[in-house]
Amino acid sequence: MKTEDFYYNLPPELIAQTPIEKRDNSRLLVLDKETGEIAHKHFYDIIDSLNTGDTLIVNDSRVIPARIFGIKSETGAVIEFLLLKQISQNTWETLVKPGKKAKPGAKFTFGNGILTGEILEIAEGGNRIIEFTFEGSFFAILDEIGKMPLPPYITEELQDQERYQTVYSHELGSAAAPTAGLHFTEELMEKIKSKGINIGFVTLHVGLGTFRPVKVSKITEHQMHSEHYEVPEETAELINKTKESGGRVIAVGTTSCRTLESVASEYGEIKACDGWTSIFIYPGYEFKVLDGLITNFHLPESTLIMLVSAFAGYENTMHAYEVAVNEKYRFFSFGDAMFIK
Fold first, then answer.
1. Is 94:83 a contact under the CB 8 Å cutoff?
2. Residue ending a domain, choose from 117, 145, 173
3. Domain residues for 325?
């Protein structure tokens, strides 16, 4: 298949710029992947589509306020740094704008000097490796001086930074939110558990490569970015018990999906483990774990819409997106949701 096969026309006004006031009041398009049937609901109705004995797998990664602004020691120029990946305790791979002012050896101060950094080298693709010097907790400093790394299609300032976190976020490390989980409230999670539906946690730290456009026409030539994941023992046991008892394993978000399918592909089963994944799921892929998927509406020609098409079927997916546009659903990170069953 070709990248252009996954194009759809999206009016700009359907790109959600701000979160909806109450998380679970977002709309929910329910798609039956076997029949192609579509139903229109609200996210709080998700409980009606879940059965006792099912297991939801959610990604508990927490977004760090990864956008920080440094002042170049030599010139006073202001440079934007976006933290992408922690390499060691004090060293990070970063995206820098403008990059030409961040050459190896250049030194920067952040937050009136509570954090300093020096460029060590230029990584593949032009990213910068920077070593930071600080006292105390690095993440506490980020909370003080950093901003949320919202995707480029969101142009409005986020008033409450917690709205770009899921209510169950815990493990610091993502440069972008696992946005399918943004629709859940604590109250809805309790209702789901009260119905006898299990909730299991995995961690996959989302990198900005998630949003990297596919620049090749033949999708098999696209190179995926690598992201770190962890599956705890408790979650592995929960998934295996669910399968044995005939329940469904439903991933909340493409990140949870990619984690489960990566582990099953590598080990032939779900087991407690951690590692790095660059799995690329597109039509033709045979799912090994997933029975259902909760996800947002994704960018045209993105790897994410390709993953959805692999699970729901290409024709079903593209038709559902056409319906969502016609029905004026809200798209992307702060937008509405789909449940594919």
1. yes
2. 145
3. 3-63+160-340
